[in-house]
Specification:
alpha/beta, TIM Barrel, eight-stranded parallel sheet, 42% helix
C-alpha cells in the first residue's frame, strides 16, 4: 500500500467509502448483516481508512462501523476514521452536537478527520470554524477538512481553520475531472492539502475509454483497477471507493500498488 503523509499523519492511498452501509438516506435494518460482513471483510483485507458521515443511513452507518471495529477487535490507533457534518448542522452549536452524536454512534473518543459535508451559503464559514476549531482544541477531532468545496470556498476554509486544512473531498475519476479544470486539484497539490476522490467509478457508471481499456488489458487487470491506480499515481490524491464485494475490495486495495508509467498515464488521457 502506498500512503500520503501530511502533518505527521499517514493515510493510505485507498480507503473504504461507506455510503450504502446500513441504508441510504434512511436506516434500513434489513441490511445490517450484509453491511457488517462488508466492513469486516474490508478490515480482514487490511483497510485502515474508513469514510462515513452523519447523513449516511441517518447515522446508522456510523453505528455499524463502530460495531464492526469493536467486534473485529481493532485498536483505535490502527484505523483512520473520517466523518462529516451535514450542511444543515453548520451553525456552531449544532456542529458540536453533531460531532458528539457521531462519536457516540461510532463508540470512539475522537475522529481522525471531520469534514463539512456540503457548503451552506446561509452560514458563514467563520461561524462554523469557531466550533470546528474548538473541537480540535478539545481533542475530539484531530484534523479538519471540507467536501464539495470549490476553490474560493476552499481558500476561505483554509483561512478560517486554526490547524492546516487536511483535505477537500470531491468527485474525481478518469472520466470526471471537473475538480481538475476548476483548479482545485492543483491548489491542493501546491498547498499541502489532500484531495480525497470519491465516486472513482462514478457510482458504477464509469465510462471506460479506449486508453483505459488498453492499459488494463496489457496489465492483465480490470479497467476499474487502473482507474484507481490513475488516482493513486497523483501526488496528494487519495480515494475511497465503496464496495461490499470482498473480491472487489481486494482488487481496489491492491490497485494502489500498481505504478503506472508516464506512457500509460498519457494513454489514459
Amino acid at each position: 500500500m502506498r500512503y500520503e503523509e501530511l502533518h505527521g499523519t499517514k493515510v493510505p492511498k485507498v480507503g473504504l467509502g461507506t455510503w450504502g452501509i446500513g441504508g441510504g438516506a434512511r436506516a434500513e435494518g434489513s441490511r445490517d448483516k450484509a453491511s457488517l460482513q462488508a466492513l469486516k471483510s474490508a478490515l480482514a483485507l487490511g483497510y485502515t481508512h474508513f469514510d462515513t458521515a452523519e447523513s449516511y443511513a441517518a447515522g446508522h452507518c456510523e453505528e455499524l462501523l463502530g460495531r464492526a471495529l469493536r467486534e473485529f477487535g481493532v485498536e483505535r490507533t490502527g484505523v483512520f476514521v473520517t466523518s462529516k457534518v451535514k450542511g444543515e448542522n453548520l451553525v456552531p452549536e449544532k456542529v458540536v452536537k453533531a460531532c458528539e452524536a457521531s462519536l457516540r454512534r461510532l463508540g470512539t473518543e475522537y475522529l481522525d478527520l471531520y469534514l463539512i459535508h456540503w457548503p451552506n451559503g446561509s452560514v458563514p464559514l467563520a461561524e462554523t470554524f469557531k466550533a470546528l476549531n474548538a473541537l480540535v482544541r478539545s481533542g475530539k477531532v484531530r484534523h479538519l477538512g471540507v467536501s464539495n468545496f470549490n476553490l474560493k470556498l476552499l481558500q476561505e476554509a483554509q483561512a478560517q481553520s486554526e490547524v492546516p486544512l487536511f483535505t477537500n473531498q470531491v468527485p474525481l475519476s478518469v472520466a470526471e475531472r471537473g475538480y481538475v479544470s476548476n483548479g482545485v486539484l492543483a491548489y491542493c497539490q501546491t498547498n499541502g492539502i489532500l484531495l480525497t476522490a470519491y465516486s472513482p467509478f462514478e457510482q458504477n457508471a464509469l465510462r471506460i475509454g479506449r486508453g483505459l481499456a488498453s492499459v488494463a488489458s496489457a496489465r492483465g487487470v480490470s479497467p476499474y483497477q487502473i482507474a484507481i491506480a490513475w488516482l493513486a499515481s497523483q501526488p496528494r490524491v487519495i480515494t475511497i471507493p465503496m464496495s461490499a464485494n470482498p473480491l472487489h475490495q481486494k482488487e481496489n486495495l491492491r490497485s494502489a500498488d500498481i505504478v503506472l508509467s508516464g506512457t500509460e498515464i498519457d494513454l489514459i488521457g
